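Let us practice reading a record.
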Amino acid sequence: MSKLLEEQFAGNVYYDRTFDRDAAKILPGEYYYTGKDMLIVTVLGSCVAACIRDRVSGVGGMNHFMLPEGGGDAESPVSTSMRYGSYAMEILINDLLKAGARRENLEAKVFGGGNVLRGFISINVGERNAQFVRAYLRTENIRVIAEDLNDVHPRKVYFFPRTGKVLVKKLTQMNNNTIVNREQD
């Protein structure tokens, strides 16, 4: 395996006692990739996360994007652009390849795109995000081997890149308004 970067653009790396391993928590507009035996975690509403890995080497990562496409903002180019699926997908795939993954071995599992704010029917961002991630991966010839998209519930996603295992917990009751506030923003 070529030079393997341990992390990229995730602000919260910690030790997870439940799973007895290091973990990276990613927020909207962030991503993380690794070749280590660790866990990547995020919570999704209408946002989508793509978990992409090389099924042979175990190098893998996850992104968390808010909208299918956009850009042109005057803010920080990286943090602003990572909110958009078109950029977040390209960056994750390119960084996985730089870290030693081989394009022909890539596989994906995709999650999120929930319509968690029931009043937002006319502009269903979750549905647009789900359609975008499917089309993007189809165009890139990356096989989607599992998905849990749409519905009305937020999800907590646990991704183990080395093995490809993903655990998804539907959040039918929320203890705080973090997701609702994000969706409204």
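A brief commentary: The two ends are 41 Å apart (CA to CA).
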